[in-house]
Structure formats: structure tokens, C-alpha cells
Amino acid sequence: MPRNLESLMNKFDNKEERAVSVPCGSHSLNPGESVTIQSRNYPENYPPSERCTWFFQGTSSQSQLTISCSVFVLAGCRRSSMTIIGGGVRQRYCRTQYGLTETSNDNNMEIYFRTGSSTRTKKGFSCTVSASEVPTTSATTSPPATSSTSAGSSGTSSNACGTVNRVTRIVGGIETEVNEYPWQVAIVYAGSNSVFCGGSLLNDLLVVTAAHCVKAMNDYQIAADVLLGAHDVENPTATQQRIGVGASAYHGQYDDSTLDNDLGILLLSAPATLSDRVKPVCFPTPGNDYSGYEAVTSGWGTLSEGGSQPNILNEVDVPIVTNEACNRYYYGEVTSNMMCAGYEEGGKDACQGDSGGPLVVEDNGRWVLAGITSWGYGCARPNYPGVYARVTEYIDILSSLMEEYGSNDLCDSTAPEQSTTSESFTPPTTSGELPPPTTTTSPNPSDSCKCGRRNPVTRIVGGQTTTVHEYPWQVGLTSASRPYCGGSIISNQWILTAAHCVEGDSASSVKVLIGEHNWGTTTETSVTEKRDVSQIIVHPQYSSKTFDNDMALLKLSSPISFPSDNKIAPVCLPDAGNAYDNVDAIITGWGTTSAGGSQSYNLQEVTVPTMTNSKCQQSYGSSITNNMICAGLDAGGKDSCQGDSGGPMVTGGNAAASFMVQIGVVSWGYGCAYAGYPGVYARVNNYLSWIAANTAGSESCPRP
Known about the structure:
9% of the residues lie in helices and 29% in strands. It has helices spanning 3-17, 211-219, 323-330, 395-404, 499-502, 613-620, 688-694; strands at residues 25-29, 34-38, 51-58, 65-73, 80-86, 89-93, 100-103, 108-115, 124-131, 184-189, 195-201, 206-209, 224-228, 241-250, 264-268, 294-299, 314-321, 338-341, 358-363, 366-375, 386-390, 474-478, 483-489, 494-497, 511-514, 529-538, 552-556, 584-589, 604-609, 628-631, 648-652, 660-668, 679-683.
């Protein structure tokens, strides 16, 4: 650099050092407003392994945004760069730039700054971002407020089983009447009122619940009590009874990975006192699938996905749907031992903490137990109804147990002919003892490793979010604890990610988080590992300016041993030649949940439709190459975002979508979830030969 220019740069340094710079993140600019952005430590050298994104939005739709850099001195392009995206601009800058100025043709601009792991760093930059002065006027009117009221129904109670104690329904159908569902029990930690599962009373000694609740009690050695006649668990009435769990068991064919046969039993340590406020539920009619019936599910679970639990028993009405309809959304994972209930538009469902609780329907004047709350993807999401164990499949088992452990005289008239044997629960020889918990046998070696299988989500509260290990191929790239990019497991030793995530990085500077869900805690899962990388292969035709061929492979320093529980597993690669146009695709990552926003601790997912490249080119022009695939809604609102780069975009691999194939790698886009600007992804099936050649010798898993 000429000496006189260096002196001039120092003058700029002294001026800019006193300027107040805005931090990474999202910022709004009024017309005529300007702000300063600077590399960290400026005017000293910026640090290595830096990742920072600024997102600027003009408050006027007529404003244009401009970035002007008075100082811009970065190291070599493989080490450090700034990418500017927005309103017709998509430029990447590195090294030293003089008079750097870019102007968008609309009111948004995204600026992404990254540095490599090398300690050879430079002074960095100091830039001004401004919104053009545009006079604007606007007026808004608020719609008139509306209100609605509803009146409930009344009824009487009787000593027969399956009758509700209903007086007046709460508006909105949230809180139950006190002891409205007298078979409902709460399973709590011993000596506390903290509900972790629900259940239904079968007689004065037996409670039916979910197998995954019982298994969790056994696995984590949870001492539990059962609350009967409870409503507000923090303010018990004289009706409430607390009885310890004497023994427990679950179905011998329960599958912890698919939640098939999710049936568990608790034997109370002492008989319950039955009354009109504490009484059993009735059996359903054998052979009735109850499709089309309006059902009620109840529990003390959270009132929203990831929310807090109430103290008071809540209920929600949901329609039972056919398994065929349900499997359109659950990719064939709903078996004949399961049933589904919920609305296509979502909004009503069971949730975390409701596991094991009842799904009841009114059948010939009595309320019968049709289902046991089991699992689902999230809570009350559109197109994902709740999934329940189908009780009609287990009447013989439950009848046999009731024959051994007392009866249910209140329900004799509705009980079927009882079996004398049960293949899954062997009647004990000593009164008061249940057989020990049954463990599921490991699958055959040929079945233990399959690619692309998602894990269904159990609804049990115990410190784990419902989506833990749902996408077992997801990994995070990190240099510390926070993932800055995503990736996917494609074999026991190779990770697929985006080239722009690792370009210029050394293998020793990148760590791979596998089996992770919430990167902010170390106690959430037992399978999370941070693996070293021994080799980085960036696609030789990758262009850091156009993001064409945005594909890279990372080789782990040691191979993964895929567990039989599918908590860590590879994704399947897509079919060659399939354009995957106009299919629903799922994107996952730990990126920000809004443009320029904060990064999520929990792994997030979003479903968006793909589109043809010709349609995508209407938004991005010739920037879209044949090596890219686009996905998003015309109206915006759903998209990948900053920090999701390198992560997978998957879709169903067959008509039943029983396994998932990765069709895209998160690459780039204008902003996040903007109307008219879909996300852009590297098209994986254009690189199958390149992937195969570079990963030869590693072990993957076949499709199911």
C-alpha cells in the first residue's frame, strides 16, 4: 500500500474508532438515516473464525439501501470475505477495496462477514449503511373488535362407568369441570405435584398409560405416585387420592423407535376408593375404528408447543381421522395399532405432558377409551394430528390383567368376553406383582441401519423437547459450541455441507456436532458428540461469487457406529435425474428464526414447496443455475435463514414417504422468507458421482 494512502487510512481509522457501530443482527432504517458497521476489534485486526450477519430493512417501501466502506482491508479471499445481498445486489468482496459502494434497488440488504481460522488477519472494515430519503405517508385503520360467547351443556352423573360429570363448559373448551372425566389420573414424581404423564383408571388397582411413560420411569429410576380425582394439582380437594405405584409393565412388542404398541400398565400399591368422582373408563367396542367420531383428549400437558404446564386439567375436542388420511402426513409411520385425531388446519391437540392420557368418545351413552396419547410431530401443527395407541387392539390384554387384578363391575356390561391368556403380559403367579418391564429385542443386523428414517416424537415432559432426534442425520458445524452452519450425515465417515461454510478453513478448525438438538445444554441427550474433521473437500467448480456448485464434504477423523435406536443415522441420497419440482420439502437447522434475528438453541424445521428453476428465475434471473433448486412460498413467511447454511433439505423418498432423501443443501437467498424470494439450495442429485468418488470406502445404509 502506498505510504500516503496508508496515512490517509489511519486518519479514517481515528475517526471511525469513535463512531458508534451497530451489532450483528436485524436493524430498521428510516428514510435519511445512516448507521455504521465495523468488523470486530476495529481498528485493530479482526479475530479468526468470525461469523456476523447484519440485516437492514428500510421502514419505507420506497427507500433504497446503500453501503459505503471508507476502510476495507481483508486477508486473502480464501480466508475472509464480505457478501452483500439484496435488491438486485449479490456481490462478494475480499482483500483490499477502494471506494466500495453498493446500492440495492429495494428496501432491504443483508451483509454477511466471515473469516477463516488462520491467525493471519487484517484491519477489517468500517462501512456506512444508509436509507435514501423518500417522503412517505401512510395510514392504517384497525378493524373493529369482535367478541363471541358460547354456552355449554349440562348433564348428570351416575355410578356407571364412562359417564362424565359435566355441568358447564368453560368458554373456548380449555379447562375441564372438576372431576368431569373421573377416570383421568395424573402420574407425578413421588411426593410432588409435577405431572409428567397421564393415564386412565381401569379398576381400583390398574391404570393404563403409554409404554414410553413406563419405560422412562424404569430407565431413569423415577419413583412415581398416581393422583386420582385430581383437577388442580396444586390445590387438591378431599376427592383427590394419592397412591404410589406398586409395579409397572409395558407391552412386550413395544418399539421405542416407532412407538408401535405404546401400551403400559401401572399397578397401584393400594386399591383406589371408587365413587362418582373417581371411577373407571369403559372399553371401546371391538372392531370399531371410531373414524369420524368427535373425541376428547385431556391432561395436564403444556398448552402450546414448548410452553409451560398448567396446574389445572385441560381438555380439547378433536375428530378421529382414518389411518389412511393420517398416513398422508406421517409418511406411513402410523400402524394399525395406532389412531389419529386432530384438525387439518391444526390448532387443537394433545401436547407435552399429556402422554399416556385418555382419548375418549361417547359410544351408546357411555364414554369409552378409544386411544392412549402417544406421539406426534410437534403440537397442534397443521397437517400433523395427534397419534394415539388404538385401545381396541389391546382389549384381550387389558381384560386378562383385570381378571387377574380385580375386576371392573361398573363396566361388565360393556366388556368383551375376556381372554384367559395374553401373549404380551403374562399373568403373575403372586398377587400384587406384575412381570418385570419387557425390553424390546434389537432388530436384526440387516435391519439395524437404514437411511432416511425420521424418529417420531413422544409427548413426555422430562427436560427434552419433543423433536429430539427427529432428524437423526442433522449435524452442526462449530468452532466452539455454537453451530455456525449445518450439514448432514451421508455415511459413517462423511458429512455433506455447503462450500461457503468451509471455504478457506483448515480441517483442524472445524468440529462436527452429531446427535445434537439443543446446543445450549450438555444434559439433554446421551448421544451427542463433537467430532474432529480430518479432511475438507470443496467442490472444485465452486464459485464464491455466484454460489454455483456450493457443495463440500467433510471427512470425520473416526467413523460413526450407527445405533439401532436410529438416534444417529444417515440420510438417503436422492434419485438421479429427478427434478423434484413441486414437492413438499423439509429444511432443518439452528439458524436464526427471522432475518437478522437471534439464533435458535433448538433444532428447527420448516416445510416449503419446491418449484421449477424457470419459476425461480422469475425472482433471481440468471443467478439460478441447473445446479440449484429453489423452495418457498410465493407469499413468503417460511424459509431457511442465517446459520442454516449447509444444512439438509429433504423430501419423501417414495410414495409413502417412509424414508427421506436429501435433495438440497442450504445455500443462499435474498433475506429470509421474503415474498417473491424463495430459498436457493445446491441440487444434490447433480453431484452423486462426485460424492460417490470422494466417499468411496465408507459405509452408508440402504433405504428401508
